[in-house]
Fold this sequence. Notes:
It is a single chain. The protein is an all-alpha fold. It folds into two domains: 2-85 and 98-106, no CATH class; 117-416, no CATH class. Helix content is 68%, strand content 1%. The chain has helices spanning 2-9, 18-35, 41-54, 68-75, 99-112, 116-127, 131-135, 139-145, 148-164, 176-183, 190-200, 205-217, 219-230, 233-236, 248-265, 270-285, 289-296, 298-314, 317-320, 323-353, 372-384, 391-416, and strands spanning 65-66, 84-85. A two-stranded parallel sheet has the order 1-2. β1 (65-66), α4 (68-75) and β2 (84-85) form a beta-alpha-beta unit. The longest helix has 31 residues, at 323-353. It is globular. The chain starts with a helix and ends with a helix.
Amino acid sequence: MSLLDSIVNSLGILKLTIPQGIMILLGLFFLYLSIVKKFEPLLLLPLAFGIILANLPIVGLGAYDFNPNGFKELTGQPLPVGAECTAHQPGDECHHTSFLQNLMNFLYTGIRMVIYPPLIFLCIGTMTDFGPLIASPRSALIGLGGQLGIFIAMAVSYFVGNAMAPLFAGFDGFTLREAAAIGIIGSSDGPTSIFTATRLAPDLLPAIAIAAFSYMALVPFIQPPIMKLLTTNKERVIVMPEPKRVTQKQKVLFPIILALVVLLLVPAAGALVAMLCLGNLIRESGVADRYVRAFQNDFLSILTFLVALSIGSSATAARFLTPQTLIILASGLLAFAFGTIGGVCVAKILCVATGGKVNPLIGNSGVSAMPMAARISQKMGQRYNSENHLLMHAMGPIVSSTIGSAIIAGIFISYFAH
Length: 418
């Protein structure tokens, strides 16, 4: 009977809860989207599998699961702060060692210690051409307009969260610090959202990160209806002049100057902006092609995998299936919508101010969903005028939005982190 009890107690399926089952189904749905529908498979596939692993009972493969005895045997160090043993029932001593349990927690250290996001920005820098922004500095205004979504999401999460707090037991609403972390979803930049959430609201990180990456994948569905609603047929057919020529010297100097200015004025944004500028300097210097190839391809793929798997493994039912998550998801959708609205509205103003030289369809690139937003600008421009080539014009606002959202994240961290 003792042996039978041991066998029964080791069966995870008997301990599977309804919330865990819901999360596993969510992971399977994301797998379907990534494999069958091919929606952002490099991101969604490991994220989905991480969600499934994190919600399997007993095995303890979540980012917050830990076997302290296994950790001590491997490292000789005490249990890290915040780690918890799930090898047995709470209060029981852990006796077995599972390296995979330790591995998942170790991988999540890259999120907890804010290692992965700046390295992703390094890779993005090697893929980014600052030329369109240098050639047309006014396009930075469109990127500034795209930040509207950040402040809308921040306000909605704060006021709606506090209004709904009495309806849910154990939910006290969001602090301004947490609302600021939620608002950065409006940056349309997954690494920036992770970077901010780890500093301001680590408990909300799984929901914030999944909302940010999910809506980034849905940008082709969210933006076009808004762009069509806010522009006229006359505006959509505007053919923009060729961008001005930018010299190699300007391209080399720009990331150096940008890094110095931002790091001196907003030090908290330093990690992201510094790595973005370093990556771009490597690209434009022309003397480190091996770095460029590595950062644009293999290194970025590895980082994307680690981020996605780590975020997925942190999305346990207890942390994800909460009232907070519903508000975060709703705020995230509003953030992307209003970011698009803000960018298009500024582009319309520039269209009038320049006498019709700016096509408002590039306004959707005020959100830094790189390069998807620029492709949407190009596709919609071609739909209404086959002579329209908006791709490079749209890259200026995207680059400025990426920089702007990192600076706003730094300001939020400086103001709310203490």
